[in-house]
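Suppose you are handed a protein chain with no further information: no name, no annotation, nothing but its sequence. What can you learn? This example shows the usual starting point.
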Amino acid sequence: MKLSIIIPVYNEINTLQEILNRVHAVVGIEKEIILVDDFSTDGTRELYPSLQGQVDKIILHNKNQGKGAAIRTGVAHATGDFTVIQDADLEYDPQEYHLLLQPIMEGKADAVYGSRFLGGRPHRVLYFWHMVGNKFLTLLSNMFTNLTLTDMETCYKLIRTDVFQSIKIEQNRFGFEPEITAKLARMDISIFEVGISYDGRSYSEGKKIGWKDGFQALWCILKYGRGRYKDYGKNTLKTLSGFNQYSQWMYSRFRKHLGNRVMEIGCGIGNNLDNLASAPDTEIILTDPREDYLQELRQNYGDRQRLSFYQYDATKPAPPELTQNPPDTIVMLNVLEHIKEDELALSNLYSLIAPGGKLVILVPAFQTLYCKIDENLEHFRRYSMRELQQKMRHAGFDIVDSFYFNAVGAAGWLFAGKVLRASEIKEGHVAGQKIMMPLAKAVDKLSMPVGLSVVSVGRKPL
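A reasonable first move is to predict its three-dimensional structure. Written in structure tokens, the prediction is:
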């Protein structure tokens, strides 16, 4: 197990080296240290050349944005199994990572909060009204999230990395704490709390949080605690899970390109599994960056023959267990649009696939159709056929097939997203698509230059 440690830094010239020493003094844990400097101006940045061997990544913001923004940056670069936030001051003791990890190691927790108000560990005596404010905000947060936390505002939050990376962090400052708590509470995960020590510092020693941040936290509790946050991606997969006719139709359009060792990138909860095999002896590899999806897949399909599961993020190099026996086909359906660095992902897939192998990609078509549904599903873009082909060629693939898919669906998406201003795919939309399936299939045979999706198939040269 590897632990990613994100250290947000803003003007910590007096404590940064010491906190790094304390982190390195923790034994028995494989660590990845990610330092995010939020535009320090006190000379902290001059220290970084001397810290190159002490941290794995140093990321510099070009302007001061706040702790939440620094955490958002750090989480995007985390590669560990779990991620913990470590302030750059000396208020929290890294030796207590073991306390946070204990519920994880016992297989009980997906996220662990370190509470300053739980247990009998040492605490520095400081500001009474800070304590009152923290407890009030925690109580209010619990009322909206239905949790029983004792310290919502704690820095020490250790969260499964795939869960952390699946959450869109919006708050730039200390509003991150109630935001992440509200969003975790609405996910199907297990949250634990353990007691930790706390050596708080005074304002004269550099403490930055103030009364304005308390009001911001109050506003964030109200904002995110009203059920506003949803895991739109998972909800959509659940909604579409019973619509296998659509998946069958989609696969019929490119089944001829599937080989005997097929890997799906971003498999989700396995909605496409029954359509992946081109022959009875096809070997299928399902990958997804989210561990909660893989856990569900193992539970539902773990006893199937010639089926394996791997946690994999396409923006990172593939692990040896995938590269040693590469797939002859990679299928990536409605995934590339979720990846900000899509060309990097395509380059990694080119390196992963066997020579002569094919990459089958389906993505949402036409940026003019981009709407609130796309935004909530965290789509960075919709594609034209030309753009998708260009990016695949740039990665090294030869294009062997391309076409638009489901022109009738494009009209439905336009109506639902632009006219009705829908925010998510609902059962009613699926029911409408089912009714229109015969017409959609008939229209699709005309090979019209329009569609809900665009499909492109590339081959890696021998």
